[in-house]
Design brief:
The complex is a heterodimer of chains A (about 650) and B (about 210).
Chain A (H helix, E strand, L loop, with lengths): L4 H11 L24 E5 L9 H5 L8 H4 L25 E5 L2 E3 L21 E7 L13 E7 L7 E7 L2 E9 L5 E11 L1 H6 L5 E19 L3 E19 L7 E21 L3 E21 L5 E26 L3 E18 L2 E21 L2 E12 L4 E13 L5 E11 L3 H4 L8 E14 L2 E17 L5 E17 L6 E15 L15 E11 L4 E10 L3 E6 L2 E7 L3 E12 L9 E10 L7 E6 L6 E5 L5 E11 L3 H8 L1
Parallel strand pairs in A: 2-5
Antiparallel strand pairs in A: 1-4, 2-3, 4-5, 6-7, 6-31, 7-8, 8-9, 9-10, 10-11, 11-12, 12-13, 13-14, 14-15, 15-16, 16-17, 17-18, 18-19, 19-20, 20-21, 21-22, 22-23, 23-24, 24-27, 25-26, 27-28, 28-31, 29-30
Chain B lengths: L1 H30 L5 H12 L8 H16 L4 H20 L7 H21 L1 H22 L4 H13 L8 H13 L14 H11 L1
Helix pairs in contact in B: 1-2, 2-3, 3-4, 3-5, 4-5, 5-6, 7-8, 7-9, 8-9
The chains are: A mainly beta (about 650), B mainly alpha (about 210).
Chain lengths: ~650, ~210
């Protein structure tokens, strides 16, 4: 199990909050301001009271340093345990897109392995702001029918520091260097994770013959330009190798051998600055290159290949994006934003004997206004136009949200929007004569924040059109809907040093897409989901304990064959509890490089309940195997250290 | 005629200064009795317009009211910020009215209140505001202590910090008790004039928690 060692580090650092400098620009928001918030959870470094901070959001136990896993503890997301990604409000994982400083993070996770979620490539602690939209998001973003995860990377670090972590399956080291004048910084991190030793101690259901191994290296450079500008560069390089054998579903004596290797590079450069006359510019560019090789074959008990089911696929995908947004600020918090962006995608590869190629140029223009209607009423209206060369189609998407503040400080929000998304490349390889799929969102939301408590209720209706169907051929005749109601309650006050939240998600969704013979509830949709996240810091023993629990009603499963359903049912309920414990200490208290260190351990699925996510069927339908966790429980234990030079005095001299 | 006008002006301004000092004294007397957020909100308004002499006292007391409100609201992070912001401005205004070389005792009083103001910013959300303002608060307290090591109000704030800081980050309840005791000993007869004299009730409250 890969762990978020930085989580622990940050727990250590924030617990030591009293003594550490920060260069956060202070918030000037007035208390009575109406903040439009329908459809979104904002985790910001300026959070007040019981609002979420990025650290709150990503330190949920069991999230394996993957932001999308962590956000499953918020309402609207499904508890999907067999693949990566965030499944929001009846949408597939592909309908959620992640953006870093405005640019698309196209492949956030290591390449998919059937039945087993893969880790995120990017450390979630890179971000000082995380906006999780489960519907009705801004016109500044597109290409996601269900959800946008809008992340803002940190600016300059607070100090020069170095860190190390040693977990049996996971080694990491990194440093950040802050220039003497506090104007620029650079840093690099290396992580290597090899699960083979761990897997020899904690047996896994697939027999891994290669890895699983994951390596990542990343580099960042940030510099302040002028009084208000900052230029940031981030580069991330990853490699993974997973090879596994499972008993073949169609034969009792053979194994199915599967191996996936991936190489990925993601590079992002962004610049933002205030300009004269109340203008602001934010621009970004990203380039990513991804290569995934997968191979599957049947092998006998001696691991000798046997004919049948042999498949090989290799895809290299180059992706580039450039974007610029200008904002103009008016009195009373009003603003106008206009901008444009361009996405270039080029895929080249082959699947067995057929060549796969695809080139797409997608251009978008957008404008959005924050309009002040009355002291307690604000609106955000936007429009986004997109043209995709591969589809030869242009679309225009309107977006609108409004917020009304009640005298007691609570707020009603509404949002409406149309969200277009191109069909997945896998379908475009086969059929070019397709169009955008779309979802129309209607969201009604109520929030109240007071006394370090936060209550939020949201109801929505979402209509899907032009979804991709794969029968009789690949076409856009699919459709569907999703509707539901969600609750969120967070309380940091009732019990001292205890922070908890509880969510409930009701989801009613059906769609007729892909090879569905008729309109069905998707196999990833559970009607009822409840999550609980609890965090407690025991001051006297310097120990933090995080517990998370998730419960989801059973999901439907189907065996669809030749246009009809030959078998179907509902899985058992999903019920999982995870525990993380960290003991924080300092090994070299009196040294100049005082360290923030600690020991950490965690268990995922503490109670060892059996989780079944669905079933896999043999070709003839007679054999049916559950898709379950690779091991009943997951464990980690290790040590982490961070050293930093205390630059308190520099900071004070520059800030007072 | 001109002379008469000037003396009349002098008389009037002298009178009004006197009246303002009365107003300041009255507000300070009320402050000694204040307990709730609404008491302090009311007094903050009074002090803001009180004027009086010496000039630094009215912004000083207005800032103190905002600090007190912040402490009373410490479990309601959503509400604190406007009070902290105003208090910070008022405290800085008071600092600007003082002579940085000669008025060491007065400066110690203002830095003590500024330290409390920064502490209230930590309450907004310790996770997000704690790093910066916790440290700033400590720095302001250190300045106060350096200017007047035995200032009973600075000692009280030091005691408060020792009491509420987790042990691994330097908290120490015994030390808190000792500091609050020292502070209290210096406040046996704090007086009632306009010069800062608060702290007795605060010390007693803190000490009652430590037992």
């Amino acid at each position: 199990m890969k762990t978020g060692f930085t989580f622990l580090l940050l727990t250590a650092i924030t617990a030591g909050a009293q003594n550490k400098p920060d260069t956060t620009i202070k918030s000037k928001r007035a208390l009575s301001e109406v903040v439009i918030s329908a459809g979104t959870f904002e985790a910001s470094d300026k959070a007040k009271g019981a609002s979420l901070t990025p650290i709150d959001a990503v330190t949920v136990a069991g999230s394996n340093a993957d932001i999308t896993q962590a956000l499953r503890s918020l309402p609207g997301a499904q508890q999907i345990g067999e693949q990566s990604g965030l499944f929001v409000r009846g949408g597939t994982g592909d309908e959620t897109r992640q953006f870093i400083d405005g640019t698309l993070l196209k492949t956030p996770n290591y390449p998919a392995v059937p039945g087993i979620p893969q880790y995120a490539r990017i450390n979630p602690f890179l971000f000082k702001g995380i906006l999780f939209s489960s519907g009705g998001y801004s016109a500044l973003y597109g290409g996601a029918m269900s959800s946008a995860l809008i992340m803002e990377s940190t600016d300059l670090p607070e100090k020069t520091s170095a860190s190390f972590s040693v977990f049996p399956a996971n080694l990491g080291a990194g440093f950040q260097h802050l220039a003497q004048n506090n104007k620029s910084s650079y840093g690099a991190n290396l992580n290597y994770s090899n699960q083979s030793v761990y897997n020899s101690i904690v047996p896994q259901k697939p027999d891994y013959y290669a890895g699983p191994a994951y390596a990542d290296g990343n580099f960042n450079f940030r510099i302040r330009t002028g009084k208000t500008g900052i230029l940031k560069l981030y580069s991330n390089w990853t490699y993974s190798d997973v090879g596994m054998r499972n008993p073949d579903i169609d034969s009792s004596l053979l194994n199915y051998t599967y191996r996936v290797r991936g190489w990925n590079s993601y590079n992002n450069i962004s610049f933002r600055s205030l300009l004269a006359h109340n203008w602001k510019v934010e621009s970004g560019a990203a380039y990513s290159s991804n290569e995934t090789n997968t191979a599957g074959s049947l092998t006998d008990w001696k691991n000798t290949p046997v004919p049948g089911k042999t498949g090989f696929r290799q895809i290299r995908s180059d992706f580039a994006q450039a974007r610029i947004v200008f904002s103009h600020f008016f009195p009373k918090g009003q603003a106008l934003r206009i901008g444009g962006e361009h996405f270039y995608t080029h895929d080249k590869g082959h699947s067995n004997d057929s060549a796969l190629t695809l080139t797409d140029q997608l251009s978008a223009l957008f404008a959005e206004g924050d309009i002040y209607l009355a002291p307690n009423l604000a609106a955000k209206a936007g429009i986004r136009a997109e043209y995709a060369s591969v589809l030869h189609k242009a679309v225009v998407a309107p977006r609108l949200s409004m917020a009304y503040r009640l005298p007691d400080g609570s707020q009603f929000n509404i949002a409406y929007g149309v969200f277009y998304q191109e069909p997945l490349n896998d379908w475009l390889y086969l059929q070019r004569n397709l169009t955008f799929s779309s979802a129309t969102h209607y969201v009604l939301n109520y929030t109240k924040k007071a006394h370090n408590r936060f209550f939020r209720a949201e109801a929505y209706y979402k209509k899907y059109s032009e979804l991709v169907k794969t029968t009789p051929d690949v076409n856009n005749n699919g459709h569907g809907y999703a509707q539901g109601i969600e609750f969120f309650w967070r309380d940091k006050k009732s019990i001292k040093n205890l922070d908890y939240w509880i969510t409930y998600t009701y989801l009613d969704t059906k769609r007729n897409d892909l090879n569905n013979p008729y309109t069905l509830r998707p196999a990833y949709a559970s009607s009822h989901t409840t999550t609980v996240a609890i965090k407690k810091f025991f001051q006297d023993i310097s120990t933090s304990v995080n517990v998370s629990w998730a419960f989801a009603a059973g999901r439907p499963y189907y065996n669809i064959k030749d246009g009809s359903i030959t078998d179907q049912g509902t899985t058992r309920t999903y019920n999982i509890a995870n525990l993380h414990v960290a003991y924080l200490c300092s090994f070299f208290k009196h040294w100049k490089w005082k360290d923030f260190s600690g020991f950490a351990m965690g268990v995922n699925n503490i109670f060892g309940t059996q989780q079944i996510f669905g079933y896999q069927y043999s070709a003839n339908g007679s054999n049916k195997q559950p898709v379950a966790l690779p091991a009943t429980r997951g464990y980690f234990i290790g040590v982490f250290m961070s050293f930093g030079i205390d630059r308190t005095d520099d900071f004070l001299n520059n800030n007072l | 005629m001109k002379k008469l006008f000037i003396s009349a002006l002098l008389f009037v301004s002298g009178y009004s200064t006197h009246a303002q000092s009365d107003a300041l004294q009255a507000a300070v007397n009320k402050l000694d009795q204040a307990k709730t957020v609404s008491d302090y909100t009311q007094l903050e308004k009074t002090f803001t317009g009180a004027g009086g002499s010496p000039a630094w006292l009215s912004p000083y007391y207005a800032a103190l009211c905002n600090a007190k409100i912040g402490f009373l609201l410490q479990d309601d992070g959503d509400k604190i910020e406007p009070y902290s912001e105003r208090g910070e401005q008022q405290a800085k205004q008071a600092l600007a009215l003082l002579d940085s070389t000669r008025q060491r005792r007065e400066l110690a009083e203002v830095y003590t209140v500024l330290s409390m103001i920064y502490r209230t910013k930590v309450f907004i959300n310790p996770m997000t505001y704690g790093r910066k303002y916790g440290m700033l608060s400590q720095q302001m307290l250190d300045k106060a202590m350096a200017l007047e090591p035995q200032n009973p109000r600075a000692l009280y704030v030091a005691a408060w910090v020792k009491y509420y800081t987790p042990r691994m980050w330097g908290g120490d309840k015994e030390k808190a008790k000792q500091l609050a005791g020292e502070s209290l000993a210096k406040l046996a007869n704090p007086g009632t004039d306009v010069y800062p004299h608060w702290g007795k009730a605060e010390d007693q409250l803190l000490l009652s928690k430590i037992k």
